[in-house]
Amino acid sequence: MSSTYRAIEVSRPGQFSEVSRPFLDPGPGQVRIRVEACGVCHSDSGTVEGLFPIDWPRVPGHEVVGRIDALGSDVQGWAVGQRVGVGFLGGSCSYCEFCRNGDLVNCRNQEYTGIHSDGGYAEVMIAKAGGLVRIPDDLSSADAAPLLCAGLTTFNALRNAPAKAGDLVAVLGIGGLGHLAVQYARHMGFEVAAIARGTGTAELAKKLGAHHFIDSAATDPAAALQALGGAKVILITASGGKTVAATFKGLRPGGASINLGVGPEPIEITSPDLIFGERKVAGSLTGNPATGDTTLRFSALTGVSAMIETVPLQEAAAAYAKMMAGKARFRIVLVRNSGAG
Ligand SMILES: [Zn+2]
Ligand SMILES: [Zn+2]
């Protein structure tokens, strides 16, 4: 067995390089994973563009699936040979106020995979056991990878949303997150409206399970939602404060606009629109590891899957550039070789 492995690291903003690294043993509470697949996510830009403070060089990637090949000391509940996933949240501390209250997502000491520690654009990675997700046997590693961030994020937001079966739920944006959100919303029993600019994704949205398609370039999306009775939830998967504001009046009283798309633009909403109808604007951050397990199991049970394109690990820089240019349809997954699954 080789004593080194291949990794794609970022040595300074925008600069990818393929390097050979020596194997390291996992520390206490950690596992070492032979990576089989890693999704390319827009949040990887936090590392690649240096939007977070990064201790260079850093290996990006937080939609990782692989097999455990070594356990650190004090690791319980996981076994060598087991296939596991690692998402954006690297694992909670278990001692801060939020952890002790059961809110693992908002742990004060959580590291972000691929940002504070090396991620999955590599053949091997070290991960904290507390953040691992179980991968159902009937999902391939490449199919499972995007579900660890794009899937968990949309599934968790919808699962915790104030909507019940039969309620109208709108999904704004039919891209990497949106095309999964439409499927989850349909399988959770909601009446689903997809909203996007132009009609390019109309047919796809219907095929994925949307009952309605609203072209926000041709019609006022808020009025269109009100014509359907008003949405209980609008899940915002695109970034852009103006887009959020333009749909907000499409909420019925008690409804919530839940934001997943990150962007610098402020969301301008008037207080009467919040108060009269008691509407809410909220954010949602991925999900805890148990919800990660549920996301993957639910996906396997219902047949929800991301539309993916697999690319060999060595071509990570090109894959990242394609994703940033908005040309991925809809998620790119790096694999150890182009045929791996
Ligand atoms: Zn992500
Ligand atoms: Zn904590």
What does this structure look like?
The chain is 24% helix and 27% strand. Strands 3, 4, 5, 6, 7, 14 and 15 form a 7-stranded mixed β-sheet that branches. Strands 10-9-8-11-12-13 form a 6-stranded parallel β-sheet, with helices on both faces. Helix 4 (150-159) crosses helix 5 and helix 4 (150-159) crosses helix 10 (289-302). The chain has helices at residues 45-48, 97-100, 141-144, 150-159, 178-187, 202-208, 221-227, 241-248, 271-275, 289-302, 316-324; strands spanning 4-12, 15-22, 30-40, 64-71, 83-86, 124-128, 133-134, 168-172, 191-196, 212-215, 231-236, 251-259, 280-283, 308-312, 331-335. Strand 14, helix 11 (316-324) and strand 15 (331-335) form a beta-alpha-beta unit. The protein contains 11 helices and 15 strands. The chain is of the alpha/beta class and 341 residues long. The structure holds zinc ion (2 copies). One zinc ion binds next to loops.
Short description:
With 341 residues, the protein is α/β, with parallel strands linked by helices. 24% of the residues lie in helices and 27% in strands.
- Helix/strand order, N-terminal first: EEEHEEHEEHHEHEHEHEHEHEHEHE
Strand content: 25-35%
Structural class: alpha/beta
Number of helices: 11
* Low-confidence sequence ranges: none
**Helix percentage range:** 10-25%
Question: What is the global morphology?
Answer: globular
Mean of residue pLDDT values: 96
For the sheet with most strands, the description reads:
7 strands, mixed
| Oligomer description | single chain
Distinct ligand kinds: zinc ion
What is the count of β-strands? 15
Separation, N- and C-terminal Cα atoms: 22 Å
**C-alpha Rg, in Å?**
20 Å
